[in-house]
């Protein structure tokens, strides 16, 4: 596309691309924007270095003029979008990229990859954090997804409401709080469970978390408190009937005087399993597979569509709305869009309003998009906690039905103004 | 775990970890081992550099002696496993890592991340390639998954039977054949569909693939042949009723004399949609979302379990089988395992045989594991085509029912000898 547009003289036409989704995953009430911070890093660093240019040349993927153009590539356009952690609905213009066609079309894949992946994980995390109430959630899914997707997943989970991660690479890269527990292998390495517990407590102190389900849970809990004392930090249960075991272990810990020792449960949890443990004496949940695979929806269906472009080169050439008109439900709405969230008299969100014309006065202060990149420079970097806090606020501003785990429609209608 | 084991003096015990899965994803007939080549790269490069060690020290994640140990870390043990592309079943010992506890336990997450992700994509790819018969399959899912998972997914898809990828980074990294088509944005950029087609043909020649469903398919096909001539390479249809459109477009192309022009279809395809197009005049399938998300199963449930370890340090200390004994379906079988695929009189596979004792004479020549790493050195690098060819052979050796897309049990029983 790039090569043909360069040759045809259309590559320099000012163009507006928008990221949006036509629908939420089936049954979901809201989406969560995540990955925005990673998009900004990716856009800033998007270059074609010598080995890549050589590959493109050797494989004859593009011609000489295109190679020259790619060698100088650097995005110099503008990006606006929903800030990270914000919620979204079908049709929400989540991100808008403006620049020449050539410079903007090249970013399609990386922007969609990041937003589709990270938002899918954040949406699952958000539902799990609703289900967990105020209890801490530990991200433990690294081994269930691609090794670097895992790091991004830990980040997205944190935005969605998780408390910490067991992925040290995510702690290193994004400064997310890290925690860990031991595995069954640690117990089995030693000549007895007693030796294993003693080794762990000797090294990490009594505040550590001991894994108690390698052999017999009751015996392990008894021994754990015997070795670590009543100030033992926590025990982890990773198999069996968690509801039953949590009650039994809590009783046993209390009987042993270990009233402050916490109970951490893991074992293929999802938002429904978490919710079903609400009445159990559980102090923290560790979640893996279902979190990093989006709890049934491992990707969002965000697309990156050309919605307007100029008829000629030049930054001042007027923009013309464009849209695909074909059959099959893939039509889109042309024109550069604004979006605002209308609230009712109590301040509860009641509609996502999207339009292409002037913004109505009463919605001017409720616009959702913020400036992210201006003439190629990132202008909206923020700490990850800002996105996490924003998500908690945005979710709290939705109607109560957003918190239902059951399947349903989007909690806000999208209105086109 | 590492710190406690180092301090307790158990870190140096020779240990055997095995990767296996307790079950296939629901309804699947076989699994596909993929990612082995990436595991070898990861193991070879697994190090702790200065910034990471500083992070671990500053955050007080591990103590001084552990930091010193990590600074010198390099895996010096042995790895055996099913070669890449091989099929697997519940209980198949897909990979075996032997070394000291300390050096082997550190590899758990990276090995599982790679195998769980890549094998999930390869399994979906394999089913899609069965459904496609001999027709080419193009991987087009980059924008639906994490930006680097996408590159690994293109690789795994190739192992599973895909023909090419639209992900240039995967072509660059793994030498996979790359192809591309234009997007609706390219058509919409121009003042007319005619201008867009002309621009593309001028730049890429008549052998290019024109996208014909931006406005009216019939009109677009007519114009495409008018502009490119009857030697037009291909047209792509990305929306609508693909079965109906493929027939109509084929008829139209033939009437226009473009009898060699191919028809490429895309649009949320999965193995079932591909199979349903078997009788349609389709020449290639482009597959995105469902491929890179494992067609409903985005991860495998492979685990990495300690199955044997020595009672003391030293390479000669005898190994003792170990296993978790707790409730909840998570028990495992202790001991270092061999595996062989038994065939019937016609040479068709009839059982996956797994054992811990001596290998029966009649199975000695049918063992599945090969040596991958010896004393820390990779000994089994191979071109990706070798894995792709191996998968085609392994799948062809299974009972015919393996090719059924319908849900069912694993096509081979796993027998414990």
Automatic annotation (TrEMBL), chains A, B:
Which domain of life, per UniProt? Bacteria
Q: Which InterPro entries match?
A: Aldolase_TIM, NAPRTase_N, Nic_PRibTrfase-Fam, Nic_PRibTrfase_pncB, Nicotinate_pribotase-like_C
Q: What PTMs does it carry?
A: Transiently phosphorylated on a His residue during the reaction cycle. Phosphorylation strongly increases the affinity for substrates and increases the rate of nicotinate D-ribonucleotide production. Dephosphorylation regenerates the low-affinity form of the enzyme, leading to product release.
Q: Listed GO molecular functions?
A: glycosyltransferase activity
- Per the record's keyword annotation, is Glycosyltransferase included, yes or no? yes
Catalysis: reaction(s): 5-phospho-alpha-D-ribose 1-diphosphate + nicotinate + ATP + H2O = nicotinate beta-D-ribonucleotide + ADP + phosphate + diphosphate
Keyword annotations:
Glycosyltransferase, Ligase, Phosphoprotein, Pyridine nucleotide biosynthesis, Transferase
Q: What is its EC number?
A: 6.3.4.21
UniProt pathway annotation: Cofactor biosynthesis; NAD(+) biosynthesis; nicotinate D-ribonucleotide from nicotinate: step 1/1
Nicotinate phosphoribosyltransferase N-terminal domain residues are 1-116
List the Pfam families hit by this protein, alphabetically: NAPRTase_N (PF17767)
- Keyword Thylakoid assigned: no
Q: What does this protein do?
A: Catalyzes the first step in the biosynthesis of NAD from nicotinic acid, the ATP-dependent synthesis of beta-nicotinate D-ribonucleotide from nicotinate and 5-phospho-D-ribose 1-phosphate.
Q: Which family does it belong to?
A: Belongs to the NAPRTase family.
Q: Which PANTHER family match?
A: NICOTINATE PHOSPHORIBOSYLTRANSFERASE, NICOTINATE PHOSPHORIBOSYLTRANSFERASE PNCB1
What protein name does the entry list? Nicotinate phosphoribosyltransferase
């Amino acid at each position: 596309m790039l090569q043909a547009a360069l040759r045809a003289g259309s590559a320099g036409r000012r163009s507006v691309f928008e990221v949006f989704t036509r629908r939420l995953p089936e049954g979901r009430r809201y989406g969560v924007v995540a990955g925005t911070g990673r998009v900004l890093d990716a856009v800033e660093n998007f270059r074609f270095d010598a080995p890549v240019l050589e590959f493109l040349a050797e494989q004859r993927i593009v011609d000489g003029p295109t190679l020259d153009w790619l060698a100088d590539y650097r995005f110099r356009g503008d990006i606006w979008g929903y800030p990270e952690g914000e919620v979204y609905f079908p049709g929400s213009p989540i991100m808008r990229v403006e620049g020449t066609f050539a410079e903007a079309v090249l970013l399609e894949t990386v922007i969609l990859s990041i937003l589709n992946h990270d938002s899918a994980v954040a949406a699952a995390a958000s539902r799990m954090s609703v289900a967990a109430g105020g209890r801490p959630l530990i991200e433990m899914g690294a081994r269930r997804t691609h090794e670097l997707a895992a790091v991004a997943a830990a980040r997205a989970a944190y935005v969605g409401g998780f408390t910490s991660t067991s992925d040290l690479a995510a702690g290193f890269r994004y400064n997310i709080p890290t925690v860990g527990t031991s595995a069954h292998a640690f117990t089995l390495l030693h000549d007895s469970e007693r030796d294993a517990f003693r080794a762990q407590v000797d090294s990490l102190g009594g505040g550590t978390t001991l894994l108690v389900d390698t052999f017999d849970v009751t015996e392990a809990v008894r021994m754990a408190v015997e070795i670590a004392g009543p100030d033992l930090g926590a025990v982890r249960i990773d198999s069996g009937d968690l509801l039953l075991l949590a009650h039994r272990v809590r009783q046993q810990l209390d009987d042993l005087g270990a009233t402050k020792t916490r109970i951490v449960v893991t074992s293929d949890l999802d938002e429904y399993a978490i919710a079903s443990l609400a009445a159990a004496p559980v102090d923290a949940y560790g979640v893996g597979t279902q979190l990093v695979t989006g709890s049934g929806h491992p990707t969002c269906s965000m697309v990156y569509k050309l919605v307007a472009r100029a008829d000629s080169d030049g930054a001042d050439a007027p923009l013309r709305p464009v849209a695909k008109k074909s059959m099959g439900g893939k039509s889109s709405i042309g024109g550069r869009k604004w979006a605002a969230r209308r609230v009712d008299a109590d301040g509860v969100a009641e509609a996502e309003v999207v339009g292409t014309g002037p913004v109505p006065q009463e919605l001017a202060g409720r616009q959702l998009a913020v400036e992210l990149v201006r003439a190629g420079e990132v202008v909206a970097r923020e700490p990850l906690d800002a996105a996490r806090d924003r998500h908690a606020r945005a979710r709290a501003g939705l109607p109560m039905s957003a918190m239902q785990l059951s399947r349903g429609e989007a909690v806000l209608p999208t209105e086109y103004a």
